[in-house]
Known about the structure:
The protein is mainly α. The protein has helices at 19-38, 44-66, 71-98, 109-120, 124-132, 136-168, 171-185. The protein is built from 7 helices and no strands.
Amino acid sequence: MDTRKPTSLVWNTNYKRLLSYQKSVIIYDLTFHFCKRFISPKDRTYDQMIQAARSGKQNIVEGYANLATSKEMGIKLFNVARGSLFELYEDYNDYIRVRGLRVWEENSTEAKTMSQLAINNSDPQYFVTLAESRNDETIANMAIVLIRQAIVLLHRYLDKINENFATEGGFREKMTHIRINMRKKE
């Protein structure tokens, strides 16, 4: 009889510390709330927006997990996340445009206030609660501000990964270096 205790998996959840991930969770929850309230489930946009928000969030998780063994794959997945967020950004802009609603200018009081709220708060429920008493124009603009922030944060993180890769290499380069050193010792 095997008396060994099963080993437990250690999950690396450091991706949750990434500000881009934190913003993407808020964006997903806010988008889900927005779609439920203002878009018919029969409209293809309903599914598209929720899936773009989900893809933005999930590809950050997957990209982070892949960085340990393949910086190249991690970078690709972070770029997929960024692309999904750009898609969602356009969906919100389209929603506003075709309904004749007002887009907040980047330097408007509303956009600056929302930007500051997003900098100071990373609780998704806070933003969903805030959205419950707001109209579609306001919520769409809130999401646009958050998406802009997430995209900027992803861009900065990608720059950092690329810089690190340029100086240290990736998993393949490290393994090659180990093999070369082993051959020299033989």
